[in-house]
Design brief:
Keywords: Signal. With about 190 residues, the protein is mainly beta. The chain is built from one helix and 14 strands.
Length: about 190
């Protein structure tokens, strides 16, 4: 009987490990109303050392766009076309119970295709194109921006607000979800389950 239980424990542990790999992504977008949830995923720090967060902002007429959440101002900032938007309405914040699985990878836009099979974080859409979440550093601040995936989009790269203007870069960090960093719970086989 003990042998059967051990085999069942081993098998369930094996199935849990296998099941987590292909569909391990465990993150979500929560509504943001000025309070940072405990499971919010940080984007980096500003020039004062304050943590900034990853937002997804709906801007009427411009679709759903990634941006930076500023907790002290209880608002978010994004850009679309040549416009910069600051808002505290229709904002979501990226959250996960596995913050350790997120990683920022520095890349050049020409190499984006190499990362498309590594769980890049989707960041809404604009002009009919799916976007991914990225970031850049300007003036000692982190800025969350939108990465266009396809080469046919004019100005492929990351687009982001700087001051009251929109800027772009072909060098940036892309946010990926690394399934291998998720800790699979270990079962202590010394504990009796019967």
């Amino acid at each position: 009987m003990a042998f059967v239980i051990l085999v069942l424990i081993f098998f369930s542990q094996y199935m849990l490990t296998i099941a987590n790999k292909p569909n391990c992504v465990d993150y979500y977008w929560r509504d943001y109303y000025g309070v940072i949830p405990n499971d919010a995923v940080p984007a980096g720090k500003d020039h004062n050392g304050d943590t900034l967060y990853i937002g997804l902002i709906y801007v009427r007429g411009f679709e759903l766009l990634p941006g930076t959440i500023f907790p002290k101002q209880e608002s978010a900032r994004t850009s679309a076309y040549a416009s910069v938007f600051n808002t505290d309405k229709f904002v979501k914040i990226l959250c996960s119970p596995h913050k350790e699985a997120f990683e920022w990878i520095s890349i050049e836009s020409k190499d984006l295709h190499k990362y498309m099979n590594r769980n890049p974080i989707p960041g809404g859409s604009e002009v009919g194109e799916n976007l991914h979440v990225g970031r850049v550093f300007r003036n000692n601040d982190v800025i969350v921006g939108k990465i266009f995936r396809h080469d046919r989009v004019v100005g492929n790269g990351i687009w982001f607000p700087v001051g009251n203007t929109v800027s772009s870069s072909l060098s940036y960090d892309i946010l990926l979800y690394n399934c291998d960093k998720i800790a699979v719970p270990k079962i202590d086989q010394r504990i009796k389950t019967y």
